[in-house]
């Protein structure tokens, strides 16, 4: 079994450019290597997609897709700044409510 780094929970809406066209999606967890999305339709493993994150294009490859959800891996990996932007939604939009994420003891 291969170790996967911790993913951070979030609720970040974005536009996803797929082989089937532009789609709305939401990032539900993320780290520097990849993310889990909700909302995209008609994705297949191996599809190359682009995410628009605050006017920056981020390229990724679909690792799995099922029932309106998908797992993607970033090519190249995301910087810590991009991950923080997607985690905390630092885009200046009002009305965003941060989830009930607190500190968790790691053992």
Percent helix: under 10%
Return the CATH topology: Thrombin, subunit H
Discrete helix count: 1
In CATH, what is the class?
Answer: Mainly Beta
Q: Give the CATH architecture.
A: Beta Barrel
Give the strand content. Answer: over 45%
Structural shape: globular
Run of helices and strands: EEEEEEH
Number of strands: 6
What structural category arises from helix and sheet content?
A: mainly beta
State the distance separating the first and last CA atoms: 20 Å
Q: State mean pLDDT (0 to 100 scale).
A: 82
Rounded to an integer in angstroms, the radius of gyration calculated over CA atoms is 14 Å
The major beta sheet can be summarized as: 6 strands, antiparallel, barrel
| Strand neighbour order, sheet with most strands | 1-2-3-6-5-4
Number of domains: 1
CATH superfamily: predicted glycosyltransferase like domains
Name the poorly predicted regions: 91-98
């Amino acid at each position: 079994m291969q170790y996967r780094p911790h993913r951070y929970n979030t609720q970040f809406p974005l536009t996803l450019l797929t082989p089937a066209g532009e789609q709305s999606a939401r990032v539900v967890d993320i780290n520097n290597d990849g993310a889990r999305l909700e909302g995209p339709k008609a994705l297949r493993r191996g599809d190359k997609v682009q995410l628009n994150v605050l006017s920056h294009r981020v390229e990724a490859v679909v690792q799995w897709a099922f029932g309106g959800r998908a797992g993607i891996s970033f090519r190249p990996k995301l910087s810590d700044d991009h991950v923080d932007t997607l985690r905390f939604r630092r885009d200046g939009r009002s009305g965003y409510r941060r989830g009930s994420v607190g500190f968790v003891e790691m053992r």
